[in-house]
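Exercise: predict the fold of this chain.
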Amino acid sequence: MGAPKEDALSLTAEQKKTVLASFLGWTLDAFDFFLLTFLLTDIATEFHTDVPAVSKALFLTLATRFIGAFFFGMLADKYGRKPILMLNIVSYSVIGALAAFSPNLGIFLALRALFGIAMGGEWGLGSSLAMESIPPSARGFVSGILQCGYPAGYLLAAVVYGLLYQQTIGGYTIGWRAMFLLSFVPALIVLFIRSHVPESPAFVEARKSVKPGLLETLQKHWGVALYAVVLMMFFNFFSHGTQDLYPTFLKKQHGFDPHTVSWITIVANIGAIVGGLAFGALSEKIGRVNAITLACLIALPSIPLWAYSTTPFLLAIGAFVMQVAVQGAWGVIPVHLNELSPGAVRATLPGFIYQAGNLAASYGGPYQAGIAEAAGGSYGYALALFAGVVAVCIIVVIRFSPERRGQVMTVMG
């Protein structure tokens, strides 16, 4: 009998702090992004325009994220995961809060594009720092934890929106501008990272020798990189196509009040967290490819309940199951991309691939909104169309993926 495998829950204190910092960074990054999805109609009203016009902010945020992934990733591969992660978090916090002072739609859109650059760096930095700091047997479970930061951020945005939006405090009614000021909160994580999180052991070891450059590495592994970008395009259609316009669907098509929209979204994101944790852990047993396939199969039968129910209760059940599937598939992605990526560019390549896929899928929000308006305001139809088609596409594409579960991670080669 061989030595027992290390349990995913028996990490050292430093490893747990590293995972926590990476999780919180992605959670509050997502919180900043998803605040906007609750405020599209209100911003449109103030700037005297329509929802498709304001939803271009979603497009710009997603389209510019690959720039941040490349820029911050290159810095992290050169100077270390920890210091650049701190710089990145401060950047997205400050830029996110500046949106509160936008005098017109043009400035607002420009600030959201800049926010996208800052947002784009966090995922690759946090995931590489975490994956290089933990034992191989813990990666699937930790991958699910890290990706759960995204729905946790969405859930937090839903809670804050439900509790604070349009509330009166000291004679002042909280509107969309005050909501964006909450973007300053993530900057506090930097204090925790500075004091408690060590640098990636793999990066520290790699500093003792010369690493191959990005272009050299990409030339050697261009096939895997190109394949992964296509895969991430479909993944980003899957997540943003089922999440970004769902609050608008609940408000415009069903006429629900902010409280109802909030609790349905909270239920959906509880499902997302359950899915991410469950399928991340499951991928250690059945493999990354099989876990993703199974999650996407679950999404298909949930579509009628999720997009065509008429009562809040049934819509919440549908949203719960749909997000179990969507974030269940996503829960495997942090570990899968890091295992596919050469170590010399692990801070750059997974994040860049992720955000390049985001760029390819970035017009999904405005496109969905346009489909919905062309169908007489049927946002349910646009949501169902995206979810069904994309789930099938992921099932097909993921079957061609290499499976590298459990490989040893270094920062060389």
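Check your answer against the key: Residues 13-46 form the longest helix (34 residues).
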